[in-house]
Structure formats: C-alpha cells, structure tokens
C-alpha cells in the first residue's frame, strides 16, 4: 500500500472523528437577548458546536423533524408551548433527542413533573452561568439526568415521606378533588363552589388543603399554573 493511500485513510479517519465531535444544539427561546446569551454560553463551552435559535415551539418541531439535534435547550413559555406535552411531542419525532428545560418557573414545583415526562434536565434561569454549563455537560456529554441539588434533596425527602404516592399530583386526586380543582381553575370562589356542589364552605376548604398538598403547591397561583402545564389547558 502506497504512502499516499495510507495518508488518505488517515485523513478520512480524522474527518470522521471531527464529524462525530460536532454537536448540534437547538435553543427554543422567545426573548432574543436570552436566546443569544444562551447560544453564546453554549458556543463558548461546547467545542465544535452549531447553535440554532428559534422563538416558537412550532418552529422547533419543524426543525427537529428535519435535522438531528444532539440537544434541545427549551424555555416552557414560548408560543405554542407552556405544557408538559412539549416533551412527548418532541419525543414522538425524535425519540432519542436530549431535552434540557431552561426556564424561569419554580424548579421545586415543575422540575420533577417534566423530568418524569421525559426531559433530560431542568435548570432555572436564576442560576449562575456555571450551573447552566454544568447542566449542559450532564445532559449532553454524560448522558445523565440533571436537576439542581435543591431539587435532588426535595426528591429524596419526598421519597421517604410516609404514605408517599407516585405521580405528578393529578393522579392522586379523587374525583371530587378533581371536580373542585376544575372549578377553582374556572375562577370560582369557595362559596360559589360550595353552592354548586351543595357542600359546606368548610368542606370545600378541607378539599382545597388536600389538593394543595397532593399537587405540592402552597397557593392558588401555583396551583393554576401547575394545572395548566400538566393538562395543556390555557385560560384566556
């Protein structure tokens, strides 16, 4: 075999290695400054990366269907999104795609439901840049699930709670509790719900406390937001 042929094989191998190292990341974020900053962090941290920015979930679905991305870094509040179904829709197109949620929502409330739905990680926009890099490294290069230390500790503590129930919260609600939750979501007050269901206000308040506990929230705003994300419903 001539030296020229050997050198040719070496170049082919090196080109193949370079191609394998190239990463493609899709950033789904509707705030241009945040989107650009996220891509900047990624391009500075990940060698040989192509970072694409889109501002809607619909466009993200189109691109994921056309190209193979190694990682999707996604905000939840983009147009067309704001629901846990974002994960299943992406996975229906690319089952093996890695998804990192990067959002301003409270991670103590929403990280576990989205990870259970199939996200590879959940990181808050409130964290320093070093934590975002850590999340990217965990999901993209180590192929592991990323949650913050705080969420990890919450997971362990909830696991060892007595009478622990599996699920996002909705699965643990009784039919009556689901009925009351839907009425709360429809902007009905305690007295109005009591009248509709022919129950006392104290009974409705007791159910409200149980719903808060099972949904792992502390106020009505978080309850409504979590209900929307888990069911895909949006109030106008």
Automatic annotation (TrEMBL):
<keyword id="KW-0804">Transcription</keyword>
<dbReference type="InterPro" id="IPR058245">
    <property type="entry name" value="NreC/VraR/RcsB-like_REC"/>
</dbReference>
<keyword id="KW-0597">Phosphoprotein</keyword>
<protein>
    <submittedName>
        <fullName>DNA-binding response regulator, NarL/FixJ family, contains REC and HTH domains</fullName>
    </submittedName>
</protein>
<dbReference type="GO" id="GO:0006355">
    <property type="term" value="P:regulation of DNA-templated transcription"/>
</dbReference>
<feature type="domain" description="Response regulatory">
    <location>
        <begin position="24"/>
        <end position="140"/>
    </location>
</feature>
<dbReference type="InterPro" id="IPR039420">
    <property type="entry name" value="WalR-like"/>
</dbReference>
<dbReference type="Pfam" id="PF00072">
    <property type="entry name" value="Response_reg"/>
</dbReference>
<dbReference type="InterPro" id="IPR016032">
    <property type="entry name" value="Sig_transdc_resp-reg_C-effctor"/>
</dbReference>
<feature type="modified residue" description="4-aspartylphosphate">
    <location>
        <position position="75"/>
    </location>
</feature>
<dbReference type="InterPro" id="IPR000792">
    <property type="entry name" value="Tscrpt_reg_LuxR_C"/>
</dbReference>
<dbReference type="InterPro" id="IPR011006">
    <property type="entry name" value="CheY-like_superfamily"/>
</dbReference>
<keyword id="KW-0238">DNA-binding</keyword>
<feature type="domain" description="HTH luxR-type">
    <location>
        <begin position="166"/>
        <end position="231"/>
    </location>
</feature>
<dbReference type="InterPro" id="IPR036388">
    <property type="entry name" value="WH-like_DNA-bd_sf"/>
</dbReference>
<dbReference type="GO" id="GO:0000160">
    <property type="term" value="P:phosphorelay signal transduction system"/>
</dbReference>
<keyword id="KW-0805">Transcription regulation</keyword>
<dbReference type="GO" id="GO:0003677">
    <property type="term" value="F:DNA binding"/>
</dbReference>
<dbReference type="InterPro" id="IPR001789">
    <property type="entry name" value="Sig_transdc_resp-reg_receiver"/>
</dbReference>
<dbReference type="Pfam" id="PF00196">
    <property type="entry name" value="GerE"/>
</dbReference>
